[in-house]
């Protein structure tokens, strides 16, 4: 073997074949050390997508409550997990298109995937910033990949250079919805930050994304209820859809716990004294390809039991209103409609497992549990 070896646990050539890419992107933790080189039941279409003419953002709280109560009183739905499986699949689309993406590499670390047609053509205009390698120095053992000009050796230099590109692409509406929020670019959660990138651009570079989602619940007379938010219609993403009480992406320079406390105050008016009691309970993950964007997200899940008399008050204008709904009814809304922002469904389904609302006796139990962590949790 040549002295320059691509070590991802396999040669890069095999990784870049469509079958190997699909297998290893989904199932393995990818580490680039050198670039020198189910048997589930049929899914039933949800009511919101079939007989009910309600669009994903035009529904009211009355629609939500009616759906929850109607299905809650129908016994045959109690053991039916197919609606939940459908919501998991909604967050894991496009695996058949993995071969359309090529690796994005920084400092010999695989940090993302870029669509090799649409988006790379735009990046080629910035040849002083982006470099397109073909076969590298490993000859036939290495495939194509994108990297940054080696003149940018420091993270802050890379951040500035790429930010200039993102601004131009945003002005051309190639990357819409700029948030002026930086995400860290790294190969895995605990890896060093190689540079920072505008949050809206992260899916175009196929970066690992991290976020925190918190289930805020109340228990009264042995019955658990979840506080659910309805997103503002002014939101640029998923306006008017249902959401967690508290959730947010994990920006550069802040820990998960600190972010939970910050988002608690901004989104629900929860004091630090109460927010500090939130319990980290695990993570869910997914990998979703939508046209030219590749989302590889890990959501850290938190539970917070709230006082019975607590009423959330949004502080940042991103939430239209809140409603406290029994967990069993929330489960039915997820199963039967598309009212929730897609990735929120995963976190709530995880909550249903942990709090005994989904049980091993139900068909598809283990399949659903496994698919909640369909992405690379690294």
From TrEMBL:
Keywords: Signal. Pfam families: DUF4743, NUDIX. It comes from Camelina sativa. The keyword Chaperone does not apply. The keyword Signal applies. Transmembrane segments: none annotated. Residues 1-22 form the signal peptide. Residues 209-350 form the Nudix hydrolase domain. CDD domains: NUDIX_Tnr3_like. This is Nudix hydrolase 20, chloroplastic-like isoform X1. The lineage of its organism: Eukaryota, Viridiplantae, Streptophyta, Embryophyta, Tracheophyta.
